[in-house]
Amino acid sequence: MNRVQATILLGLLATGLGVASGGQPGAGAGGFSELYRAEVDAAKDLEVVMGLIERPAGSVGARHYHPAGEFGFILKGTLTIETEKTPQATLKAGDSFYQPPGEWHAVGTGSEGAETVVFRVVKKGRAMVVGVD
Fold first, then answer.
1. CB 99 within 8 A of CB 66
2. pLDDT under 50 in the chain at which residues?
3. Which of 39, 64, 71, 92 would be 20's cystine partner, CB 3.0–4.6 Å?
4. pTM of this prediction exceeds 0.85
5. Which three-class secondary structure string do you get for the chain?
6. In the prediction, which pLDDT does 1 show?
């Protein structure tokens, strides 16, 4: 599956959840670029956020969690993910993953870096990422 196919797939998932149109692309901090944001029709306090995370080669991220969980698809490169409940695993381009709500994880990259499309359903006005000490 290529980048366009992954983006279309995640868009279809959002549509299947009954998402109202809206959301403008925009760059965010830490290599996160927001691709789409929209209200969920069936639950007005929720939003769908789709983004692209670009991580440089040899990067190591701090432990963090997502209050509403996160679905992801690796477009390029490799990610090493350590989680609260599972041993360290290496994922490569074409692999997908799910991080349950509130479960901390830390992510690192190989020598080529990585690009990942992520899909989150979040409560409006709440943080999408929370750091863990």
1. yes
2. 4-30
3. 39
4. no
5. CCHHHHHHHHHHHHHHCCECCCCCCEECCCCEEEEEEEEECCEEEEEEEEEEEEECCCCECCCEECCCCEEEEEEEEEEEEEECCCCCEEEECCCEEEECCCCCEEEEEEEEEEEEEEEEEEECCCCCCEECC
6. 55
Q: What is the pLDDT of residues 32-52, one digit of tens each?
A: 999 999 999 998 899 989 999
Give the separation between CA 121 and CA 38, rounded to whole angstroms: 10
Tens-place pLDDT, residues 60-75: 989 999 998 899 999 9
Location of structure tokens 């991220």: 61
Other beta carbons less than 10 A from residue 80's beta carbon: 15
Residue type, 126: R
Q: Report the pLDDT value the prediction gives residue 121, as an integer from 0 to 100.
A: 87
Residue 67's identity, in one-letter code, is P
Would you state the structure tokens that stand for residue 129, as one six-digit string?
């990422």
Contact between 82 and 133 (Cβ < 8 Å): no
Query: 12 CB contacts (<8 Å, ≥6 apart)?
Result: none
